[in-house]
Amino acid sequence: MSILKIKLESDPILRRKCAPLKVIDRKTRRLLSDMLDTMYEARGVGLAAPQIGINKRLIVVDVGDEGQGPWMLVNPVIVARGEEEELGSEGCLSCPGLLGDVWRSSEITVRAFDVDGNMVTIQAKGFEARCFQHEIDHLDGRLFIDIAENIRSADAQAEDDDCCCCEEGCEHCGEPCCDGDEIDKKDGQ
């Protein structure tokens, strides 16, 4: 297991279109395994090769119980997109401390090679579809901050998430922060 250094937003490699990989060998499998370990160590759900300084079309994705992974993919391509799009919050291991809202297709089909060189077709929905789109964007030199709305500090978002609306006032700040209508919305009712 090797933990690799993640490149940050200012690194020029993150702005380059990646070259396809021509051969899947032991070195490729080891790199993908190290990428997966690095992603887990960084508490991410996806990682693309340019994020670790490699200009190749490689990604790893694992969204836990919400998906089918872990995936270690070579030369992934989105071959179909559903008609519906969803606006969702995203962050990035290469842009620590930032979140933004990004419109993404809610369903996609990805075609790629697995670590054994077999062609795989993946039908992804929801958060897993969002993650594949985000990682494949990296392979084309695009960061989520290029297409995001409402870019904000993750720290500010965490403070908002900690803010608990209740009739007595907010646990976070002690101030009254809502009338009864917002309590139902926050509870998803």
Descriptive keywords:
2 domains; Peptide Deformylase; alpha+beta; about 190 residues; disordered C terminus; about 25% helix; three-stranded antiparallel sheet
Can you describe what's shown?
There is one protein chain. By secondary structure, the chain is α+β, with helices and mostly antiparallel strands. It has 2 domains: 12-147, Alpha-Beta Complex (Peptide Deformylase); 154-189, no CATH class. It is built from 4 helices and 8 strands. The strands form 2 sheets. Strands 1-2-3-6-7 form a 5-stranded antiparallel sheet. Mean pLDDT is 87; it is low at 162-189.
Explain the layout of strands and helices.
Layout: H1 26-41, E1 46-48, E2 58-61, E3 71-81, E4 85-90, E5 98-105, E6 107-113, E7 119-125, H2 126-139, E8 149-153, H3 154-162, H4 180-186
Antiparallel strand pairs: 1-2, 2-3, 3-6, 4-5, 5-8, 6-7
User: How many discrete structural domains?
Assistant: 2
Question: Approximately how much beta-strand content do the residues carry?
Answer: 25-35%
The number of E-state strands comes to 8
Cα distance spanning the termini = 45 Å
- Mean pLDDT score: 87
Helical stretch tally: 4
Contiguous uncertain segments of 5+ residues? 162-189
Estimate the global geometry from the Cα principal axes: globular
Placed side by side, the strands forming the largest sheet appear as: 1-2-3-6-7
Label the CATH architecture of the largest domain: Alpha-Beta Complex
Q: Give the % helix.
A: 10-25%
CATH topology assignment of the largest domain: Peptide Deformylase
Main sheet: strands, sense, barrel: 5 strands, antiparallel
How would you spell out the order of helices and strands? HEEEEEEEHEHH
For the record, what CATH class of the largest domain applies?
Answer: Alpha Beta
- Write down the Rg: 19 Å
Oligomeric state: single chain
